[in-house]
Write a structure and sequence with these properties.
The structure is a single chain. The protein is mainly alpha-helical. It has one domain. Helices cover 71% and strands 0% of the residues. It is built from 21 helices and no strands. The longest helix is centred in the middle third of the chain and has 28 residues. It is globular, with a radius of gyration of 21 Å.
Length: 440
């Protein structure tokens, strides 16, 4: 084995160890750890007992009955824990956990989250190391070492993104294809706003990829129907209740409000959609929502047009995925944890780096900035420093501090999207011939 390949593997293993040890230690030390998993677990416990998982009072009853009400120690924690905002298809993952008591359930969930993300990182390594093994290992090491939030919060994004990566590997290698279809179907059912555009990429790419996308869609519908039927039997008004819960979260000053008044949009696991940038200047959804669409829709249309026309090749495939991994985060609600999807930009970055041109150096710089921007540790250090300054509630210094928190991630994601899209357009001038696997 070449020394550079060994170096890359050592870095990947190092990042995995930091991810496991630091993430586990911080989760253990937290007073309200695994908040996102609780928001899945207790509504699922409620559903198993034929209670309404979208009714706040019924979910709260399960917290009290099982002695877990101590975790409802703030208004925001209470809302996150008891007002279910996940679609019924999320019960595909949460109900099996809810069959177990909290102790083994949360340990199993953390093990699945950590194991799946580390496994996904090794799959990306397998797809990328032939281009530049050491830079691949370095990027994945940094991403893993700064992804502790997914273990601390227990957010389902860790599993969803990992399943999406498994599907990409299966489709590209043309191995274990049905396992890949199942993985993408589950991730699409649980968090469609995270991986929906990745699925769309396969659909638009045509040929064998389109077949895989359509098979995934059929399977997604098939595995979603039982959950939907079950929910309709237990909670006939779940659509209205889910809509109410979503509105409560996104109301002005709410947890998911992208504006400056948000009670949960900034700080660690912050909101990263482009609405956060526009709302910083104009805190009005009638302005920041259309402005976001005005920026994102043209980029999506160009990406879709090139994807349909592109002649299959590894370069075009990875560039297309890199564009959509970054761009997916911008048009609608996403948080810092969801940006783990940027792991799909690693192959494109190291492929360009291996060419030894200016574009490769720029790709490494942009990816490095992106991974720093979405990392938990850099933000923990920065936010701790800002809090230590004891800035006044108003004034120029407070506005600068808020800008430092709100603007970097969305703007860096936008820069990544535009950068990879420009290369995608540049490398796709020839009409595509259908049915060719770019890895063959």
């Amino acid at each position: 084995m070449k020394r550079t390949r060994l170096d890359g593997l050592y870095l990947l293993v190092l990042g995995s160890l930091v991810f496991l040890l630091l993430g586990g230690a911080l989760e253990n030390a937290g007073t309200s750890s695994l908040a996102d998993f609780r928001a899945l677990y207790y509504p699922a416990r409620c559903l198993i007992q034929h209670c309404d998982p979208y009714n706040q009072s019924e979910v709260m009853r399960f917290y009290r009955a099982e002695g877990a009400s101590r975790f409802l120690n703030s208004v925001s924690n209470l809302q996150i824990a008891t007002q279910n905002v996940y679609p019924p298809t999320a019960f595909l993952l949460s109900v099996p956990m809810a069959l177990l008591p909290w102790g083994p359930a949360h340990i199993l969930w953390m093990a699945l989250t950590a194991g799946s993300f580390i496994f996904a990182s090794f799959l990306i390594w397998n797809l990328s190391e032939r281009y530049a093994p050491t830079p691949t290992g370095a990027l994945l090491c940094f991403l893993l070492a700064n992804s502790e939030l997914v273990l601390i919060c227990g957010n389902v994004a860790g599993i969803v993104v990992s399943l999406c990566v498994v599907a990409v590997w299966c489709f590209l290698r043309d191995r274990f294809v049905w396992a890949g279809i199942l993985c993408l179907a589950i991730s699409l059912a649980v968090k469609p706003h995270d991986v929906g555009l990745v699925w769309l990429f396969f659909l638009l790419a045509g040929g064998l990829h389109r077949k895989r996308a359509l098979q995934t869609l059929v399977l997604t519908v098939a595995i979603s129907l039982p959950a939907l039927v079950w929910i309709w039997q237990v909670s006939p008004h779940w659509i209205q209740e889910l809509h109410f819960n979503l509105q409560a979260f996104s109301a002005h000053g709410g947890i998911n409000d992208p504006g400056p008044a948000s009670t949960g949009g900034h700080g660690l696991d912050m909101l990263i959609s482009l609405q956060s940038v526009f709302s910083f200047f104009w805190d009005d959804p009638r302005i920041y929502n259309p402005a976001t669409l005005l920026v994102c829709v043209p980029l999506l249309l160009v990406w879709a047009f090139v994807t349909v026309r592109a002649q299959p090749s590894p370069k075009k495939f990875w560039l297309g995925l890199a564009v959509i991994a970054a761009l997916s985060m911008l048009p609608i609600y996403h948080r810092q944890i969801d940006a783990m999807l940027l792991i799909l930009t690693v192959p494109a970055c190291v492929m360009l780096w291996a060419e030894g041109r200016f574009a490769g150096r720029l790709a490494m710089l942009i990816n490095g900035l992106g991974f720093v921007a979405i990392g938990a540790l850099p933000w923990a250090i920065l936010l701790g420093f800002i809090n230590h300054l004891h800035l006044p509630a108003t004034g120029l210094s407070r506005q600068i501090a808020n800008a430092v928190q709100v603007l970097p991630i969305p703007l860096i994601l936008l820069s990544m999207s535009v950068f990879y899209l420009s290369l995608y357009v540049h490398y796709c001038p020839v009409p595509r011939s259908a049915g060719v696997n770019p890895e063959r």
